[in-house]
Design a protein that fits this description.
Strand order of the largest sheet: 6-7-8-9-5-10
Structural class: alpha+beta
Strand content: 15-25%
Helix content: 40-55%
Low-confidence stretches: none
Mean pLDDT: 88
Shape: elongated
Largest sheet: 6 strands, antiparallel
Radius of gyration: 29 Å
Length: 418
């Protein structure tokens, strides 16, 4: 096992508790309740936490030493024994009592008292430090804690990876955070206590009990020094740029309008975190601006008229996605452009849905159609699921376009034009 990745299925591990049976050198067995384990919910594989293993090994030595010297066992035995039906257990011990003797370091000072679990610090690998004890204690928050930093004019939010992000105050880095598998926000206690008290009280208002799950790109980057992969949204923006640049290079045409506003719009395209229509709209509108409204009607129409004079009459009524579709039909092979470009039409319709430009009945009908075209159940209404699927489909769309553009024909036409 490395870090918080399961060796068997590579899913994330989380801290959980159970019974651990130890076999003494004499062959007798003792058992310890409330032992911290690292558990994989996917394949159910269980690992012993590193510090827990050290403490259990020490317990075993102490019990064996007492037996060999025929001394009375001075280690406190749990009087409420666990289930002994399947094993012949000599004695039961409570790990919580053992833990209290060892995990009693003086923590970093707090002005505002946050909810957290010291077990996370001691028994999740990689968090214990010999300095600033408790600094890397994970503190958990509702996802809504990020709303302030998304909308407040003094702050900025950058989610460069799916589960790792930064909060900025002005142009300065302010806080790092992660998002776990349960869509909870994670921050380090040490980072939080360095903020001003007013900010700490805001965070405290969204502070929740630990779910012992910190497996994320946040953990990997900050604890294991593993560089986080770009988020799906960032990868999509890069894929769109690659497509536009290749078309410009080989066909000498800008299929998208490029201006200073493009950069501003792109900054607003980030992972959808909150399952509300308003949050969905805040993603879909800039996506539509960049992927649909930025289609360069003038340049594409001019290119088609020059290469295909017979299309002049048809081009009078085409713009946007339909115009780009026609250009692709003329400059790709071995794909059904009408099928592959469908995610752009879905995006356009989702923009209408999110902006409430229809009656409720019509909106529901259009949303159901969008979900069906994305391969989802027509009854799907989880905006995060819809958004993630749309991003994936758009990414696949650009892959197909790049793969099947007629690069050879473009080069030949370029040579003939010289």
């Amino acid at each position: 096992m490395s870090g918080l990745d399961c060796d068997s299925c590579e899913s994330k591990l989380h801290l959980a508790y159970g019974e651990k049976i130890l076999t003494l050198s004499s062959g007798e067995k003792i058992a310890v309740e409330h032992t911290p384990f690292l558990v994989c919910d996917v394949c159910q594989k269980i690992y012993i936490s590193p510090l827990a293993k050290e403490l259990l090994d020490e317990l075993k030595k102490l019990v064996e030493s007492a037996e060999q010297e025929e001394e009375k066992n001075t280690i406190e035995v749990n009087q409420e024994q666990g289930d002994t039906s399947s094993e012949s257990i000599k004695q039961w011990y409570d790990f919580n009592k053992i833990k209290r003797e060892i995990c009693c370091d003086k923590y970093i000072a707090e002005k505002v008292k946050f909810i957290y679990d010291k077990d996370d610090y001691y028994f999740i690998p990689g968090l214990i430090r010999p300095w600033k004890i408790g600094f890397l204690t994970p503190v958990f928050f509702n996802i809504e804690v990020l709303l302030k930093y998304i909308h407040h004019p003094l702050y900025g939010l950058d989610i460069g990876a799916d589960t790792f992000g930064y909060i900025y105050k002005g142009d300065e880095h302010y806080l790092s955070f992660g998002i776990n598998e349960n869509n909870k926000v994670i921050m380090w206690l040490g980072d939080i206590v360095e903020l001003n008290v007013e900010e700490q009280f805001y965070l405290r208002s969204e502070n929740i009990t630990s779910d012992h799950c910190i497996g994320s790109e946040f953990y990997e980057a900050q604890i294991e020094n593993v560089w986080a992969k770009a988020s799906a949204e960032r990868r999509l923006l890069k894929k769109r740029l690659d497509f536009n640049e290749k078309v410009r290079e080989y066909y000498n045409i800008a299929v998208a309008q490029l201006d200073t506003e493009t950069l501003t719009v792109a900054k607003n395209i980030r992972k959808l975190l909150i399952n509300t229509n308003d949050a969905f709209k805040d993603l879909i509108i800039p996506l539509n601006e960049l992927f649909v409204e930025a289609i360069n009607n003038k340049a594409i129409s001019k290119n088609l008229k020059e290469k295909y004079p017979e299309l002049r009459e048809e081009l009078k009524n085409k713009k946007g996605i339909k115009l780009l579709q026609l250009w692709l039909e003329k400059n790709t092979d071995k794909i059904d452009v009408n099928k592959e470009i469908a995610p752009l039409f879905v995006l356009y319709d989702l923009r209408l849905v999110s902006a409430h430009l229809y009656s409720e009945d019509s909106r529901e009908e259009l949303l159901a159609s969008c979900c069906t075209r994305l391969g989802l159940e027509e009854s799907e209404r989880n905006y995060i699921t819809i958004a993630n699927t749309l991003i994936k489909k758009l990414d696949e769309m650009y892959d197909m376009f790049i793969k099947h553009l007629c690069w050879k024909n473009a080069e030949e036409e370029d040579e003939n034009g010289k």
